[in-house]
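As described in the Methods, two query proteins were run sequentially through the folding procedure within a single session, without resetting any intermediate state between them. The first query and its resulting structure tokens are shown here.
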Amino acid sequence: MDILLLFGQLAWTFFVIGAFTFGGGYAMLSLIQNQVVVEHTWISESVFTDIVAVSQMTPGPIGINSATYVGYEVLQNATGSHFLGICGSLTATLAIMLPSFVIMLLIVRFYEKFKTSTLYAGTMRFVKPVVVGLIGAAAVILILKVTWTGFSPEVTIVTENFPDWKSWLLLASAFAAGYWGKANPLWLIIAGAVLGIILY
């Protein structure tokens, strides 16, 4: 594939994701997964899951971090060049941030005028449940790999995205420690990394 065309597709894909995602980074994940794994097949499901895991551990919003890593992975895989991989990171990151930047500039200018508008209130009532659905979809995407081949349930293949029982044990332990034990997330990340090295 022509490199300039790939840059253009990458920029347009993440620009559209940034323009039509409400609710923050987690709401973006299902859209990013659909575009880069399903539509364009730039990366595999397992690589995307790894990218999300790394994006959660690194500073910054998870949606932007994911775009950065995806941009690098796509261009580096296509060209074998570390430099072009970095350019891919910059392209995807800027493209996903640009719509929000422009929208926020407009909102700051006009928010005082339309914050009491019934149209604004109605839009927010519509957007909030959609955001919850997108975040839920991202969680399901990371846990299950669904191969959609038609409308009949018999031809829709659902498999676990987790490699084995040890992954489920780590997930359950981290959830229990965080939810009931109120453990510091930093220590959970460190413990997960250490246990991952030991178990795998």
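Immediately afterward, the second query was submitted; its sequence and tokens are:
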Amino acid sequence: MSAGLLRNSFKGAASAAPFVPNLLDQLPNAVIVFDGVTKLLFYANPAAESALDLSRKVIEGHLLSELFAENNALNQMIAEVTDGVTAAQRQEMVLHVLPNAIHHEASAAHVVIALLEDPALVMMEWFPIDQQLRSERDERVTQQVEANKQLMRNLAHEIKNPLGGIRGAAQLLEFELPEKGLREYTQVIIKESDRLQGLVDRLLAPHRKAHTVELVNVHEALERVRSLVLAEFPKGLRINRNYDTSLPDILGDKEQLIQAVLNIAHNAAQALSEEIRRGSAVIELRTRVARSVTIAKQRYKLALDLHVIDNGPGIPDDIRDRIFFPLVSGREGGSGLGLTLAQTFIQQHQGFIACESRPGNTDFHIQIPYRTQEISA
């Protein structure tokens, strides 16, 4: 079978039986098919589209070397398969994805190269070998954060009642003081009580308001975030849109989603103070669709894939693993609640939020699953 015939067979199968998807399309691992001699690509399954951040139409016609950086181990595997030394090869290696390299880093992957029916046709399948480790890490962090949130909620309730008593006692004492000059001390008590009351209210806020669900246009929510951040930082900051406008609406609480992304973007803007002063600060809001994702051990066909990326100094090493914990802040004067609340809101949408940071690139990654009624709608 020639490359052209195989390509037509893929398209023919899809058109002849639209309700029986191509088997390769259903694989959770990324798969591409290319000519073993010219290394010209003509097929990619949805997982490969997501991994390469390119549509199938764009991938078709590319050379393999235009998708991946030069890799001697990969070339050797392909050569052994196409030369007939073996029908298939598998190996762990580091893959460097070239398109949109700013969003892709080198990743360790398990790669399989196999010969198809026609000896000229080669299939490459790969998946990240750190996926399971990352899943375990995310689950462990989620459990830790959940335990911390429960502790903080209990602590907030314990603080709330005596705090009101302290404030009331300070007010009564203020009326009894013979000298007005002494009242500045009771004012300190009252103001600090009010500040702590505000902190307690913020800790309890996500659990007071009912979680309302409606169809939300993600990009309308992001535009709201963008306008709010730019209103506070009108000079020296650029917020770039990198949207997939074909994304369907998602079921969720619009205000919670706005607040979650706003907390992240606002933190990013505050961390970019030096870059804002130089006029080089950039935040990117990026949306894509992720296919065949697993969140909290639940498999979903589609998910919203949202990134908030900034070019700031990065998160300090000593707090990087604790940034979602309550009262942890890398900024002087910060309350350490913004990211905690963001994670709470995202978790209430059955999603997850993670962060990877290095100097010049901090990427907050959010995934929220599309549920069955959204996909059918």
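The chain is about 45% helix and 25% strand. We note this only descriptively and draw no conclusion about the first query from it.
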